[in-house]
Amino acid sequence: MDIPRIPLGDWIEGGLNWLTTEYSGVTRGISRVTQTGIDGLNDGLMWLPPWALLLIIVGLCWWVASYRLAIGAALGMALIWNLELWNPMIETLTLVVIATLVAVVMAIPVGITAALSERLYKTIMPILDFMQTMPAFVYLIPAIPFFGIGSVSAIFATVIFSMPPAIRFTTLGIRQVPKELIEAADAYGATRGQKLFKVQLPLSLPTMMAGINQTIMLALSMVVIAAMIGAAGLGSEVWRAIQRLRPGDGFEAGIAVVIIAMLLDRLTQSFRKSRKQ
User: Fold this and answer.
1) How far apart are CA 223 and CA 162, in angstroms?
2) CB count, 10 Å around CB of 15?
3) For residue 38, how far is the Cα from the chain centroid?
4) Distance, CA of 16 to chain centre
5) Cys staple from 194: which of 73, 190, 209, 250, with CB 3.0 to 4.6 Å?
């Protein structure tokens, strides 16, 4: 006996078509606002001379981390400049910064609520499992009908892909606060808000920073993949090298991505260690 095939793909496609039709005004508004933010940050970073931005990055690394990271940042950024990948690097950095900010702003309240509500925690954990195991390329599919080809779709897909670690680590950090400290706060008559902002969040901040670190890394990997739907930056350089069978150009752009990833990773880790102290 033949079992009829469940038309899951047709249902999903129909749902996407309905959403894009009914909420086209909303998506166009979001697209305009997001594109304005992308253009503004990108133009601001492009306005700075490369040597000036290089000095700012080196100074930030020295102040947040150490002189070793500052020296490494100077060498890495100078190499990107020498390889004539400065503008694509700025475009990639713009997408990562905006996507990370949006993901963190959305993830932290959800993580806090899930940590305080057992019902929401049990509901959201399977959803996060689904989001993290879904192949990254799949997130590009709904982005196109909502926002079209370009950087806005890349931001949308990157936010969805990179958000789960921030939610998980925020929830984990708050739930791992020792019960003795919570009981002590209750004994002193602390309200629920005082316990959250003066006990739970400060103690869970290092764990939350680890989640933000993972969000940044996932955002960087996703904006490279998003070059397939027209996102500018180092990912487009890699994609162009693949299309033209120029492995040298692809490796140069890949090395630039590695440099940016290492700098962002070391900066967030240094901030996390400083908060622990």
Assistant:
1) 10
2) 11
3) 15
4) 24
5) 190
Q: Contact at 8 Å (CB) between 222 and 158?
A: yes
Phi-psi region at 231: left, alpha or beta (left = phi > 0; alpha = psi -120 to 50): beta
Which region, left, alpha or beta, applies to residue 2 given φ > 0 means left and ψ of -120 to 50 means alpha?
A: beta
Q: What is the mean pLDDT of each run of 10 residues along the chain (277 residues)?
A: 78 84 81 86 88 89 85 91 90 90 92 90 90 84 81 87 91 88 82 84 87 88 82 85 85 89 84 59
| CA–CA separation, 165 and 215 (whole Å) | 6
Q: Are residues 61 and 263 in contact, defined by beta-carbon separation less than 8 angstroms?
A: yes
Residues 1 and 231: their CA atoms lie apart, in Å, by 48
What is the dihedral sign for C-alpha 215, 220, 224, 227?
positive
Residue with the two structure tokens 């009829």: 4
Question: What pTM was computed for the model?
Answer: 0.86
| Rg of the chain on CA atoms, in Å | 21
Task: Retrieve residue 235's tokens.
Answer: 């990912």
C-beta of residue 124 within 8 angstroms of C-beta of residue 114? yes
- In whole angstroms, what is the distance from residue 251 CA to residue 125 CA? 37
The position carrying tokens 């947040």 is 64
What number of other Cβ atoms are within 10 A of residue 113's Cβ? Answer: 16
Find out whether 156 and 147 touch, Cβ atoms under 8 Å.
Answer: yes
Structure tokens at 79: 């190499």
Measured CA to CA, the distance from residue 54 to residue 250 in angstroms comes to 23
Q: Which two three-digit tokens encode residue 139?
A: 């997130």
Largest alpha-carbon pair distance within the chain?
72
Residue 250 CA to residue 161 CA, distance in Å, equals 24
